Amino acid sequence: MPALKRIRRCGLSSALVSALLATVSLHAEVRVLKNFTLIDGTGRPPVPQAAMVIDNGRITWIGPVSQLKAPAGAETTDLTGKFVMPGIIDLHVHLGATIDLTQDAKNQTPENFEKNLKKYASYGVTTVLSMGTDPDLVFRIRDEQHAGRPSEARVYTAGQGFVFKNGYGGLVGVNQPVATVAEIEPAVAAQAAKKVDFIKLWMDDELGTMPKMPYEMSAAIIASAKKHGLRTLAHIFYLADAKKLTEQGIAGFVHSVRDQPVDQALIDAMKKHGVWQEAATLSREESMYAYGITPSFINDPFFVRGVSPEVIRLLSSPDRQKTISSAPHYGQYPKFAAMAKQNFKKLVDAGVKYGMGTDTGPPGRFAGYGDHWELSAMVDAGLTPMQVIVAATRSGAEFLSAKDLGTLEKSKWADLVVLDANPLDNIRNTRAINSVYIAGKPVQ
């Protein structure tokens, strides 16, 4: 131990050395959590009467409480009757642009980013991937987090994603639409220079109302990203586009196919090329028609605590509801949501890899609350609570190549959620949040 050698070189007595080391140990940040049921995120059965030692934010020991050897001076928390699972990883969010129900790039201030990340954390979401609508300030936030121990949700980013000129997607004022293949390599190189975690593209025509990115451009984006060591993710709606992008080398889809059932050809191609259903965003599809009436959760304390009175007023407004329900494609949205669920379940059953993502951030898709909506929707689609929890923890970390996150195992960051009820009995019990820890510290 280098510190011990330095102390001894000072000529101090053994007794004084022992006292100094005891003082260091006493004041080190060591926490012990004990007597909880552990759901570790790996998919293994839960472990009752478990305990965990956390030292400076990382798990140094985890196992049965009967084998616990608590370090001297550790802060100990008895969690009898509680359930502990890894922090939730959301692979599809949009940060900082919405205040109440108004979305604008001008809202993307450091203060609003911080507010968003703290809100996600308060709902047990400890890591997010922001999906292609970020100003450059996101890179500073991310890099500071990675260099230390964050107190809010960890952020990964796809920077400024690729939108076809005059086409669908992105955020006005942030994304720079591209019109030709020649523009793509320098634009991808610029994103790579900022050290984005992924490249994002939008492949959609908004139900035939906008021009869609040509396939030669998506191919160029994917190829250029690979040249720079980056994976590309795609917003898609149509089965035909999913098939083409899979051929071109896409890494994952950030929504389910919603126009028709997926077929065996797509399933086989996704498995062959290792393409993920990175996020199904089932709650996003349900939110498209949820506000044509007063939503059922308008008085749910779990929802209300995360929104302003203005949001409650607007969601309760008959005039706003009428505007939403009279939109041209409003009647089709329930069908698209049902198709998204059907297709997601089919891919899962076939062995396609998948994570959990919400598309929260835009108006009506609420940070934190939307994640628990998504978990419930995944169970409604036919997954078990354990499958859903693994998707939202271990699988999310695997997709991000975040080896220190996603499961509660020795040496990993202690990002975890303490629950008052068992989520394996009912996935809605993820809402019974007692406390949240990020890097071993309770979220305030």
Keywords:
single chain; 444 residues; alpha/beta; Urease, subunit C, domain 1; 2 domains; eight-stranded mixed beta sheet; 16 strands
Short description:
This protein has 444 residues and is of the alpha/beta class.
Give the SSE layout.
Elements: H1 2-9, H2 14-27, E1 30-38, E2 47-55, E3 58-64, E4 75-78, E5 83-86, E6 88-93, E7 98-99, E8 102-103, H3 110-122, E9 125-130, H4 137-147, E10 154-157, H5 184-193, E11 199-202, H6 215-227, E12 232-235, H7 239-248, E13 252-253, H8 264-273, H9 282-290, H10 301-304, H11 309-315, H12 318-325, H13 333-350, H14 369-380, H15 385-400, E14 416-419, E15 433-438, E16 441-442
Parallel strand pairs: 1-4, 1-5, 6-9, 9-10, 11-12, 12-13
Antiparallel strand pairs: 1-2, 2-3, 5-14, 7-8, 14-15, 15-16
Which outline best applies?
globular
The total number of structural domains is: 2
CATH level 4 superfamily of the largest domain: Metal-dependent hydrolases
N-to-C terminal Cα separation, in Å?
A: 35 Å
Report the strand count.
Answer: 16
Helix content: 25-40%
**Which band does the percent of strand residues land in?**
15-25%
The description of the largest β-sheet is: 8 strands, mixed
User: Helix tally?
Assistant: 15
**Structure classification:** alpha/beta
Could you list the spans in which at least 5 consecutive residues all have pLDDT below 50? 1-27
According to CATH, what is the class of the largest domain? Alpha Beta
